[in-house]
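Sequence only, no structure available. Ideas?
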Amino acid sequence: MSKLITFIFCFNLLQGEGAEDISFRYGFMGQLQSNPDSTVVLSDSSVIHTGDRVRINIGYIREYDFLLIFKDSQGEFEILYSAQTKMGAQSSEATKQDTFATALRWAKFRDPPGEESFYLINSKSPLSYMAKLLSRYDSAPNKAKIKLAKKIQVELDDLDPNAKADLSSIASRLDKPLVGGVTFRGDDDELKDMSLTHECRGTGGIAFIKIVLNHK
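Reply:
I predicted one. Tokens follow.
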């Protein structure tokens, strides 16, 4: 999957953030070859096929670090979206505003099939080490990439709440469908390109979710 340009638009998305330690909203949109005239909501374990198109939207408070990391079916990593604050910088009114971003514009999946993994991370603490690893990985030769990929996976697993708590409690706290309508749906309740369909809530200053699409 090629590098993708991100376009950022500011909206008032995350009212009431204080009720949770940290959260963000997201939407995985799919346009499937089996039904090309419709847009569907994808979630963890959704099945996609070669040639199907996927788009990812996110909404978060701008003063926090946000990373969207993609691991393809061959185990190769890529940053699809990165927004980092300056360590130690004073929060301003501008950075406290909410941000909507198209983290992955409509893109087709290509062979080989397998698990296509997306890691969405919103953190109150800088994710500088993770970003540094991924930057080194991007320009490293093949042998070095293998070692760096292992380090990246260790860091991701360390952030993954599923490795730290009971799965039943995680299910109620993370990957929560939005109730009472979907942000950026039209009056006819149809999904739009910019729709956000789920909310991820975290504690301890980090909200993390892994979405795996089953590429057939």
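Confidence is low (pLDDT under 50) at residues 2-20, 166-174, 178-189.
Hope that gets you unstuck.
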